[in-house]
Amino acid sequence: MLQPTRSKFRKAHKGRIHGFASRANLINYGAYALKAMSPERVIGKQIEAARVALTRHMKRQGRVWTRIFPNIPVSKKPVEVRMGKGKGSPEFWACRVKPGRILFEVDGVSEQIAKEALYKASAKLPIKTKFIKRIS
Asked: If pLDDT is split at 50, 70 and 90, which confidence band does 135 have?
């Protein structure tokens, strides 16, 4: 599962996801990509599940680039614990995804295979996505 090796702070505020992506909003590496259309937090397990679905459908041909990384710790209090007594311990890592951000890029396979693979990967993610092609 994806998580940073070190982080500056152990716990983070929840925050809000405003605006549109200004970075990682263009295809840089592959020929086809999956683009986020709605703002949401994507957790490390979801990213990994999408990557596995993607590579399985492509039968390990071609190349996959993951353009997001979970770097925000999400804390959670244990079940049946009363209010107060501080913030819970970090439970998992998440990535704040803005609309317009490229999530995955694919190259080395046909457009049909890439479209199907990225569709299967998008089913594992909690956000609306869109298949896009590089404009040559």
From this structure: confident
